[in-house]
């Protein structure tokens, strides 16, 4: 058994000399070594710049940062910048990760204090109606362009798997097992290797797309590629998606809304929240439970269908369940 790591606390005088910028660069360097994805690191950097730009010289030294500053910053972002509560919480959450890292025993750059998020009223996700989804999933005719076929396949894929945009652009042909009905994700938000099942309908749709446009592909080619078979960027795929939805008569153009729609339909069709969390790649059940909360009213029919009071009352007088005493209780079988 290895010896416990010795915690070396820095003195207050040493901490007062630690520059906030230097501490943040050390934080980013460690998170990069830990394997955090580029999007998360960029988000931390953007929030940090916003925080430092607001307080300027007041936060030159990390030791000078204190709890009251975060309340002040919240009020500024809400009142002056008029940011939504969810956006404010995003920034507070980002800087909180950095600050709590600074508070750890082996660093002790800052005296520990709590940083709380604002309470946010749950809103309905920006999902699509069933009618809108049907319009997006209508198969293109053979004269349609490659871009339209690709976006049709993308829509089918997200509605069938709930995949993220960042995952879509990294899927190569070698990651797809159409015979086995599986896809392996090399790129995920938490950098964990993940696989998803492909339904029979999605397998059929992907076969149609591949045979129509990617007949000479190699295993290194991307599934949702540019027309020259190179890798498409998230920005380009999002722009192509906006053009596709407008052409299909759908005003919404947020591709992430298809992921919300997948979660909604999974839940409303009786899907298990634990399995949903694994499918969507959530690190905790919190986000999947959020879907349950916001869609609870839409599941009223299932609530009545499975409700014990209604079922027992409905069956009263039509069928009695006879419970025999067990032998253990002295009864006869």
What topology emerges from the helices and strands here?
Blueprint lengths: L11 H4 L4 H15 L3 H18 L11 H13 L5 H19 L26 H7 L9 H16 L3 H4 L7 E2 L4 E4 L8 E4 L2 H14 L20 H14 L8 H13 L4 H8 L5 H9 L5 H7 L1 H8 L18
Tell me what you see in this structure.
A 3-stranded antiparallel sheet has the order 1-2-3, with no helix packed on it. A hairpin with a 4-residue loop joins strand 1 and strand 2 (182-185). The chain is globular. The chain has 333 residues and is mostly helical. The protein has 15 helices and 3 strands. It has helices at 12-15, 20-34, 38-55, 67-79, 85-103, 130-136, 146-161, 165-168, 200-213, 234-247, 256-268, 273-280, 286-294, 300-306, 308-315; strands at residues 176-177, 182-185, 194-197. Helix 7 packs across helix 10 (234-247).
Distinct helical segment count: 15
Question: Which percent range describes the beta-strand content?
Answer: under 5%
What is the averaged pLDDT score?
83
Structural class: mainly alpha
Biggest sheet, strands in spatial order? Answer: 1-2-3
Shape label: globular
In whole angstroms, the N-to-C terminal distance is: 57 Å
Our Rg estimate from Cα atoms comes to: 26 Å
Give a quick account of the main beta sheet: strands, pairing sense, barrel closure. Answer: 3 strands, antiparallel
- Please estimate the helix content: 40-55%
What is the H/E string?
HHHHHHHHEEEHHHHHHH
Number of β-strand runs: 3
Low-confidence runs of at least 5 consecutive residues: 1-10, 320-333
